[in-house]
Q: What sequence folds into this?
């Protein structure tokens, strides 16, 4: 939910479809509207995500898998800098704000002079490398492929964990590989 998504997250993109499929498989899932849906600001989203994790798994808030699309991918990266998680799935993640003032104001992106860098090592401390998945498309109209590759390289993801899916645009539609990645993460022993 962010940067233009409606106030009903289950009707945005593929979020409701994924929620339904996970629920059918008896995998607990939270798919709720976020505060500040237009601007998707870090100082609102990351604390909100933490409160949802604590609500979903009060005994162990790290026992979660984050699925983040676009702005949600940025929030998932920054969440994993601060808090342990079982797994993270990034969809259409970007490294920079792409020169967009609105994106820059969200607070997710590194700025000049080493200000607000991604703390990839902290992310990997909080979520082991094999529990990260990243999806990107070769024809995303908003996020060039090299932006996703910078995230991939920062996390040191393998070709198994990083998948470039041709002709998926900005992933506005549901795709089976997403559910498959979540199933791997939730059926691990």
A:
């Amino acid at each position: 939910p962010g940067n233009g998504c409606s106030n009903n997250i289950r009707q945005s993109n593929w979020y409701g479809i994924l929620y339904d499929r996970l629920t059918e498989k008896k995998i607990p899932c939270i798919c709720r509207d976020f505060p500040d849906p237009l601007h998707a600001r870090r100082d609102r989203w990351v604390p909100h995500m933490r409160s949802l994790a604590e609500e979903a798994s009060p005994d162990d808030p790290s026992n979660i898998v984050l699925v983040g699309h676009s702005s949600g991918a940025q929030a998932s990266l920054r969440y994993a800098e601060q808090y342990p998680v079982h797994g993270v799935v990034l969809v259409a993640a970007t490294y920079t704000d792409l020169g967009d003032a609105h994106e820059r104001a969200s607070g997710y992106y590194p700025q000049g002079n080493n200000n607000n860098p991604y703390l990839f090592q902290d992310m990997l401390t909080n979520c082991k490398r094999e529990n990260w998945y990243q999806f990107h498309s070769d024809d995303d109209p908003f996020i060039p492929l090299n932006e996703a590759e910078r995230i991939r390289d920062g996390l040191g993801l393998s070709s198994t964990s990083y998948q470039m899916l041709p002709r998926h645009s900005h992933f506005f539609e549901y795709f089976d590989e997403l559910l498959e990645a979540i199933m791997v993460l939730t059926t691990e022993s």
Remarks:
- Residues 78 and 108 are 7 Å apart (CA to CA).
- The first helix runs from residue 15 to 24.
- The longest strand covers residues 65-69.
- The chain is about 40% helix and 10% strand.
